[in-house]
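I hope you will forgive my troubling you with a question about protein structure. I am sending you one protein, given as its amino acid sequence and as whole-number tokens for its backbone shapes. Thank you for your consideration; the sequence and its tokens are set out here:
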Amino acid sequence: MRNEQTGNNDIKRNVWKNLVIQKFSHPFALFFLLITSLAVSFLTYKLEFIGVGAVLALTIGLPIVFAITVYPEFGICALIIAAFFISYVSEFLPDQVPIGTLMDVTTYLLILGFFIKQRTERNWTYFKNPISYMILVWLAYNMLEFVNPSAESRLAWIYTVRTVGFIMLMYYVFVYQIRTVRFIKTLLKLWIFLDILAGISAFQQENIGFFPFEHKYLYADPLRVSLLFINGHMRKFGIFSDPVTFSYNMVIGALLCVVLLMGDVPLKRKVTLGCIAGFFLYVMLYSGTRAAYVLVPGALSMLAVLNFNRRVLTFTLIAGALLGILIVMPTSNPLIKRFQTAFNPSDDPSYNVRAENQKKIKPFILSHPIGGGLGSVGVWGRKFSPNSMLAKFPPDSGYVRVSVEMGWVGLLLFCTLFFVVLKTGINFYFSIKNPELKNYCLAMLLILFAFNIGNFPQQALVQYPSNILFYLAISILVVCKRIDDQEQEQLKKNNNTGAILI
């Protein structure tokens, strides 16, 4: 046996040696290596940091591009990881680096992989459900906004549809490519792990301080500092672009852990998930985002309704009692004080300002059924149509933004989309037989319900990774139902076969 292994090693060594000698001793190969080394040196010298990035993109990026296109499970995980870290990475990169195109390219590659796989495994039955139809209607309406006669700029539509329209297509990619319970578990573990990293980052910012590159990014824009520095305390945002995105992701991470620990898992894992959920809710306070504080009791009330039993009722009552004590108790802690104001919006000056802004924009919404055009407010509105009225309007609420940009018709479609998703998801939850899939379905329902509530006081679905996770949660609802139907069909076939044999 030893002689056989030695012989195999000698053969491999000789083959490798002959391959290297034959290939790299050829004049053309040497010339190619020389030109490549000179090109790398020239790019690094001329473009400095960007040149190094270009070289790395070619040597590392090409295999990743291939893997994302050909191996969809890897591509989906890569998309989620990139969505979590894109804002964090952009903080220490030069402004000239188009980091946003990374998400665009990943999205396009996944779509390309979807159509390539459809050539050999054509199956459109995955999308025969009300959710898929409604998302298609919403996507079509977003596309039609390009010809909105009230739009001040077509370029604003082009830049906005990248993070709004094309992200919707990820729903269809997720539904088609997520096919096993094992992969759903992998995605949920990855989701929780990335949220843990985000929470650790915020904990570091609060208790240790900002890293030098974070400090530089923060103070590079005086407006950013003025928005984040409130009552002598700097709001924390972890690895995300802003405190709102951070706090919402901590809340949905906590909800995910709470529902998972209610499943059939070992006690040790229940304790671990409970501790992680507590950590998420604790670091969420560092964000100072009052809107996020309301999401927890709102989602827990949904949990109590959907999964009504003695254990859930007891948990909900205890959580409600603790929340009530936290709301009314006297305190000098600025974080808890800000938490308490979330449940007294009439005493909140910022809430009153938002209500006044919404009152002022109401006549415009009523007189423009299809709105002022996608991208007419916010960053792209200020960039491409700075002199327009809408460019100066602070939308704050996600629903208000839809109303302004896409009109009351768009708002009606958007609310219908949420209704269809939640109604269909609830029907799926009560019809699924597999307890594990039922648990995952419940977790996604709570997350989507939290996004629904959170989109009223803030824009919950416009930033990475929230926009990706929103459509991922919807797709997991559909996939859980599909897998359960397949299992029930297989079980029925097995029973029929057994009956025939008997």
About this structure: The chain has a mean pLDDT of 83.
